[in-house]
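Re: folding output
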Amino acid sequence: MSTDLTGKIVLIAGATSASGEAVARALVGAGATVLAVGTRPEALAALADAVPGVDTRVCDLGDRSAVAELAMRIHVKFGNVDGLVHLVGGWRGGGGIAGQSDEDWAFLERGFETLRNSSRVFYEDLVAVPAGRLAVVSSTAVDRPTAGGANYAAAKAAADAWTRAVAQGFTKDAPNAAAAIFVVKSLAGLEAELASRVVDLWSEDPSTINGVRTLLTDRADGENKSADPARM
């Protein structure tokens, strides 16, 4: 049976990527109200045209005060959000350790800050609703970092640690909530699979996904494997 998300409010951070469009389409198809957040109005307009029914919001998630204002506006119109899907990211690499530039680090660190800000601001929402869900995308680089990708791996590791901390908070504050980490080598070609897995989070036992890093693969090629068997 397909997961019915009628009545769920799900915010997608970094919604204008290919993965963001795929996730938005799947969530709308499951009946959820989707709040697509990004920084580029023209890209958000294109997303709204591609996925009818999506509610688009312009916000710099790297600015905590802007995220707090976004949350206030969402609460007035919709109430608490049931899900936060964080898709802000990007790759930056360099020539070995000495080639890891401050400019690349600033770009990657901002991706982490958007997760930190949005999860802090919407944490109480995810605790208050019957089945709050946080979903993030991580990388195999966390487990196998290279010198050329040191900045990238470090930023992803920080996001992993933060999400696991959120998961531990859920364990204490809302056992029916869950923070899930999908791990990929490359997300290209797995956008539809990610979208399907995000929708399925609401039909999963939270104790089996909370704080768990799951290696994302195409289900046609076999079942997903735990990238880290640790449970929170």
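--- second protein (sequence, then structure) ---
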Amino acid sequence: MATNLFDLRDRVALVTGGNGGIGLGMARGLAEAGARVAIAGRDAAKAEEALAVLGPEAAFIAVDIADQASCRAMVEEATRRFGRLDILVNNAGINIRKQPQDFTAEEWHQVLDTNLSGSFFAAQAVYPAMKEAGGGKIINIGSMMSIFGASFTTAYAASKGAVVQMTKALATAWAIDNIQVNAVLPGWIDTDLTRGARQQVEGLHDRVLARTPAGRWGAPQDLAGIAVFLGGPGSDFVTGTAIPVDGGYSSQG
């Protein structure tokens, strides 16, 4: 009998920052493909709405993603509840929009600690369980700012560029353990985070539409398919990549 390359019915996924936006879009895609899903974050109240969408088997796990011990506890709780852990989506992230000369050291470290260190700590925490199980999938969330620069995203761009290089390093290190590590680079997606950007950056909405061949902003559900592909057997020989999901935004010079 042929393997269904997009069937996740025997998989368990952990999605950090999965209670809204891109994270919830990916979590929904994984759940609809059959995976049992845990979402991790700080806002338990917000998570209740996400859990209602994800179904009765979904669970919320509290985590301070920038804390190594908290990431280990998150993974331990997920494996305790579900018995295994096959997919990690490193989606939790923040942005502080300022000109580079205006960043405080605290703000710089806050962005880097959440977006970069948090992704590393979570991947590091899940590695033993995946190795013991004979393999797994790690999906790191980069950004268009992994490719391009913008004057108001210095710390964010630094963190997301580093996420891509970290992805390649982890993929190289853990391929022997049958763990595939890939990055997704979302384009301009309509989320709470980007709505804030449109309020803060004059003309951003029109510039995004003008440059995006698809002629629209993305929606969180546009990330569902790539999550299922990278989380399932269809991507077993795909590792160390950074895949834009951006309506063609990055294809234009």
